[in-house]
Amino acid sequence: MSKVWFVTGSSRGLGRSFVEAALARGDKVAATARSTASLDELVTTYGDAVLPLELDVTDRATVFDSVQRATDRFGRLDVVVNNAGYAQIGAIEELTEQELRDQFETNVFGAAWVIQAALPRLRAQGSGHVVQLSSIAGLIAMPLGGAYQASKWALEALNETLAREAADFGIKVTVIEPAGFATRSGKNPDPLANGHLAETNPAYDGLRQRLAGMMGNQPAGDPAAAARTLLKIVDSDNPPLRVLFGQGFHQMLEQVYADRLKTWSDGQDLSVEAHGNLAQSSATTP
What we know:
By secondary structure, the chain is of the alpha/beta class. Helix content is 50%, strand content 14%.
């Protein structure tokens, strides 16, 4: 049975690959982008199976209107893919207030508006699948990515909470955490070159140079393969809450989480000291 998709950020990258894979197998897709001109080729190829929608996810009213239009057109929603987002690059000291706010407006608030608009419809159906595009940056922190990583960490918590809140209504949630994918010119994208760049402070030039030498060393993933894997996930009766897309980071994540557990374990004496003993304190107070 074909599915109905609502996908944000459909103009290019993984979002575009997801849309094309769904349409190619006979599903229907409400594809959103900042400009519907980028979706013309899809309409030409797939006709009425695709509904192009111009959408800026930071505009909450337009998000709700777009979800309504998709539901009116196709009668239901089965898969909601929160893919729209971008990377703001810069040291914490370099970020302007507006850059930090804009990062969260798109990556976090935009995703929240889509969820809020779609959830009543999924709940009424008693079914549906919310797919959130996070990132390996939602699990680890590296220099110069504080704004982007903070937004992705927020999305991880938002969607884990959603999974617990929506499970009783038959709604599934999956957080996709991609590593590098060859979404531009067949290469593993370098966020230091392709993201939104803050005005640089020379104090961080050395750090930038060291990181530039590290970027792009991981093998770039194939977006078409990622799309095929997503189809398998949304067709599953028991999809994972989280899944890494791509190779090269699993071992790093194991070390990151081992280090966190060790840090907490090593600080147990401080934890006990900070807790105190209210009963004893009350008893000895004159």
